Every structure is written in C-alpha cells, then in structure tokens.
Amino acid sequence: MIEAIQTLLPSPQPVHHLGLFRDPTTLSPVEYYNNLPYHRPSAPDMTNQTAPSLAIILDPIIATGGTSAAAIQTLREWGAAQILVLSVLGSVEGVNRAAEEWAEGVQIWVGGVDESVDGKGMIRPGVGDIGDRLFGTVGK
Prior knowledge:
By secondary structure, the chain is an alpha/beta fold. It has 4 helices and 8 strands; from the N terminus they run αββββαβαβββα. The strands form 3 sheets. Strands 3, 4, 5 and 6 form a 4-stranded parallel β-sheet that branches. The protein has a two-stranded antiparallel ribbon with strand order 1-2. The protein has a two-stranded antiparallel sheet with strand order 7-8.
C-alpha cells in the first residue's frame, strides 16, 4: 500500500512505521515496532515540532478497530495535527471505533464495509487474516 500511496502524493514524503498486531486471545492491540523520529515531550508545555500536519495510516483491514485506534492515539500523542486512515476493507463496528478515537482529527477512507465481526475479531464475510496473507504465515 505504501508504494501505491506514494505515487499519488505530489512530492516525496518520509515514511515511518508503527508495527501493531491484534492479540488473538484478548483482541487488544500490541505495539511491537515504532520508528517515529520523535516521541512525546516529557514536559506538558512542549510540542513536537517535527510532527507533520497530516499523518496517513495505511491499515489494510479494520476489523475491531483496536489497532487503528491505537495507531491514531500514538500519532496524536506524537503531535500530528490531522490523520487520514486508508483501508481496503472494514467492519461497521471497527470503522466507528477508529473514527471515535479522535473524531475531530481523523478521516477514514474505506474501500468497502462489511456488517459484522465474529468472536475471533474477523470480519464476516471478509477476506480472512490479511496479516497471514501478506506475510505467508497461514497455518502457523
């Protein structure tokens, strides 16, 4: 998704990565990687001068909305003024949860929306576990 989005931008932009996955038991987001160049200031009156005015989150699937909401919160704390979330597929519940994380600062664009999420946090009918498909971990 990164290469496709970069071709649409008017000029080259830096890319930073947040690595999040959903714990299969609790369905809660777990952050395993963050290479944002600057993290929260220690003093409450300091602001992050390196944060962009617009941050774009590429999340292929928004099922429960937990990982998107966690990424939104991280970027908000980092100092992003606005966040655009781009997703191929989402559930009604997940998209609403992500949108409510910071209603005035987030726009969510989704290619398609399915109605429900099952007890395992999978969109129904959906496309299966996109992480397994992207990284070849099906059955592991």
